[in-house]
Design goal:
Mean pLDDT: 90
Number of domains: 2
CATH superfamily of the largest domain: Endonuclease/exonuclease/phosphatase
Low-confidence stretches: 1-17
CATH class of the largest domain: Alpha Beta
CATH architecture of the largest domain: 4-Layer Sandwich
Helix content: 10-25%
Structural class: alpha+beta
Order of helices and strands: HEEHEHEEEEHEHEHEEHEEHEEEEEEEE
Number of helices: 8
CATH topology of the largest domain: Deoxyribonuclease I, Chain A
Distance between the termini: 34 Å
Oligomer: single chain
């Protein structure tokens, strides 16, 4: 059906001589544009929220932003686009199309920096509660016109059922199972990230296990910080708790302080291991304004939080009972904006197909090179090293099954990945 365009470049030689770093952000907006008996035009006024959100956006400046709890009308999603994102000199944010097949008052939305990304495809999975949205973005690299090549990223956004009952947990599990089954049937592997407000209390919940331990290992997701366990009310995870920013009940914001990890950005193996031009930047996963010192406290409670400017801290407190989470992705492609260019400082050739050994020949490189061989499912098979000024390298593969593999060589700045066919 919609098998993505990764196949166009999946099996070709990939030479990376330039890179860009982009920031991804996930945020529950708390009834943005949606009036309820408890979140009203008085305690959750959309104009006040826009003022707060402008402060937050100006501080974070995400390249890709997914949100939940936005009212599903074009007027409201455009209000956020025009009055929170495209402000303070910004004119470059665009959005996806709204969907609401599940008939909820609260929807998901994707916004992105159109200077860097183009939305090429979107789809929605209807569930008993809310849509799960899937989007494909491609990076606006100049290599599109010269090499007909770029990096693609699949973004999945979901807002799972809230609540601590067994019924609530079952609904969450049904929703993530629907997503994983879709990815499985469509063979939707590649640069995937799954993000949203998951409302899970521990990593052992079926909803979360569906994502990280699905039967088809090729489409499983990974926690970039590998912080698994019982998140709810546990001081062991204070750096990752995202809800609630409020210790006291004001009707709209949930109370209880920061003691739950509800908001996530998960990554596929391809992103984790930099298989197809997109790599998670280690150490970049952050819960914005989480200082680790406010367990079961509100964001503005003592001690004073110095992780963000005071204006941003106040805006985060006022806008939502959730904190946003962010991470950075390294795009191994000529930058769309002509930034962060890296010289092409090595290359190599390889015999193909191979039988007993992979024979590699290197041009001048002057530094150590790191070699990794991956299976077609992204599993690391072996590692090796090329010493500075070494021009030839042979790797024994006679023990490996026949099939398609990927050979990745890196010097820390430049990456070259080539397809290897082993035939005995």
């Amino acid at each position: 059906m919609r098998l993505l365009i990764f196949s166009l470049f999946l099996f070709s030689a990939i030479i990376i001589d330039a890179q860009d770093t982009v920031k991804v952000m996930q945020y529950n907006l708390l009834n943005y544009g949606n009036t309820t008996s408890y979140c009203t035009t008085t305690n959750n006024n959309i104009n006040d929220k826009n003022n707060d959100l402008r402060e937050i956006i100006s501080y974070v400046l995400p390249d890709i932003l997914t949100v939940e709890e936005i009212h599903g009308t074009n007027t409201v999603v455009d209000n956020f686009l025009n009055n929170a994102l495209n402000q303070d000199g910004r004119t470059y944010y665009q959005r996806a199309s709204i969907t609401n097949y599940s008939g909820s008052d609260l929807c998901n939305m994707l916004y992105f920096d159109a200077r860097k990304f183009t939305l090429s495809w979107q789809y929605a999975i209807s569930t008993s509660l809310r849509d799960i949205n899937l989007y494909t973005l491609y990076y606006n690299s100049p290599d599109l016109s010269t090499l007909h090549d770029t990096a693609y990223l699949n973004v999945m956004v979901m807002h799972l059922k809230a609540g601590s009952t067994s019924s609530d947990a079952q609904t969450r599990a049904d929703m993530t199972n629907a997503l994983m089954n879709y990815l499985d049937v469509e063979n939707m592997t590649g640069n995937n990230i799954a993000m949203g407000d998951f409302n899970v209390y521990s990593s052992s919940e079926a909803a979360f296990q569906n994502l990280i331990n699905y039967s088809n290992a090729a489409i499983r997701f990974y926690d970039p910080v590998n912080q698994l366990g019982q998140w709810h009310n546990s001081s062991s995870f204070t750096d990752y708790h995202t809800q609630s920013t409020h210790s006291n009940d004001d009707d709209c914001h949930a109370s209880g302080g920061l003691d739950d990890r509800f908001d996530f950005i998960l990554i596929s193996n391809e992103v984790k291991n930099n298989l197809f031009k997109v790599k998670y930047v280690p150490g970049s996963y952050k819960t914005i304004a989480q200082d680790g010192n406010h367990f079961n406290k509100g964001l503005l409670d003592s001690p004073t939080n110095y992780t963000v400017p005071s204006t941003v801290l106040s805006a985060l407190y006022a806008n939502s009972d959730h904190l946003p989470v962010t991470l950075k992705l390294r795009i191994n492609q000529s930058p769309a904006l002509g930034i962060e260019k890296v010289k092409n400082i090595f290359d190599f050739s390889v015999t193909n197909p191979v039988s007993e050994q992979i024979h590699m020949t290197f041009g001048a490189h002057g530094s150590s090179l790191h070699i990794q061989l991956y299976s077609i499912l992204g599993k690391s098979i072996l590692k090796d090293r090329v010493n500075p000024y070494e021009t030839k390298k042979d790797i024994v593969v006679s023990h490996l099954p026949e099939g398609i593999y990927f050979l990745k060589v890196s010097n820390g700045k430049q990456i070259i990945m080539k397809k290897i066919i082993i035939e005995h």
